[in-house]
Structures are given as C-alpha cells and as structure tokens.
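Standup notes
- DV: blocked on the single-chain target, sequence here:
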Amino acid sequence: MLYTALVRVLGIDCGSALTGFGVVESKDGRELTCVACGAIRLSSADRLPLRLAHIYRELSHVIATHRPEVVAIEDIFHAVNAKSALKLGHVRGVAMLAASAAGLEVAEYAPLAIKSAVVGYGKAEKSQVQQMVTRLLGVDLASEPADVADALAIAVCHLHTAGTLSRQLRKKA
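- DV (later): unblocked, structure below
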C-alpha cells in the first residue's frame, strides 16, 4: 500500500474481556484526527465462540462504517498465563480475519514500538500512553477504558511509521 496525503488507520487492542478500537486519520503525516473510538465489551457468561463472533461482527461494522485503509494491532507478547495467551491469540486471529475479509492489510507492532512511537519511551506506563494520546488527538478518554487509548496508540504508531513504510515500498518497486 502506498501512503497518500490522507491515511485512515484502525487500531485494535485485542482482549478477551474487552477489545478497544480506534480509527485515526492523518493528513500529510502531520495532522492527526480521531475519527472514532470505543470498546467492544464481552460477557464472561458467553462461551468463547460467541465472544469471538461478537468481536468479528463489531469489528466488521467498524470497518464498514469508517473505511480504514489499513488495520494495526499489537504483536504477540509473552504472557505468564498460557490460557490467557491462547484466548488473546484467538481474539487477534478474529481481528485479522475481519481486516482480511474486508481486503485490508494488517500491520503488527510490538508494545515497545507502540510506546516509543507515541510517548518516546518504550517502557512508558499505561497512564503516560493515555495522556499522550489525549494530547495528540485532542480527545477526552477519561471515561473510556485504557484499551481504547491503547487502540488509538496503535493507530498513531502506524501513522508515525507510515512515511518510513512508504519509502521502503518505493525502494522495492
């Protein structure tokens, strides 16, 4: 994908209880705008297949409504609890499926890269990420779960690296 003057990215913070999403648009790589953000809340009473189907439907709706050019998600990280890691892997797979079914590329970023791109420090605290996302996008996230700020941070990370990706693609062509 070549990056143009206007790029719209859907960032997804995958979780088995709550999945955050954020759609961010960049104009000429400088001006960042939050188009939409929110959280897909899941009932722990539902079996995993029902929760995954709900995530798929909701993400498909977000994609159809806001028409991003690319989807960005957090890369796999090491979890202490294997069962939690497997559930997170299922959710990531569903997020990738929703993007792929819509014909979109999926970009994956390590947590360290996301924090570095947004805060400037790879070991930043969640509160620092939320504060910087609030400043960069001019949105009030106080009443939102941290997963929403994380999803927006993932989208911002992708937009910050879009120029580099575009240059690399041009070199390959």
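- Follow-up: The domain at 6-172 is CATH 3.30.420.10 (Nucleotidyltransferase; domain 5).
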